[in-house]
Amino acid sequence: MNFYKWFITSFVFSIAAAFSSSLYAMPVMDIHIEDLMLRASDIQKSLMLNPNQQLLWQQVESKSRAILRARQTRRGNLQADLLAKLDVPTTELRDMAAWVNKEADLTMQEDRQLRELWLTVNDALDDHQRQTVLSFLADELVRVADQDRGHKAEKSDGQTRGRGMGRSKQGGGMGGGMQ
Question: 20-51 in b/e burial notation, b at 16+ Cβ within 10 A?
Answer without folding.
Answer: beeeeeebeebeebeebeeebeebbeebebee
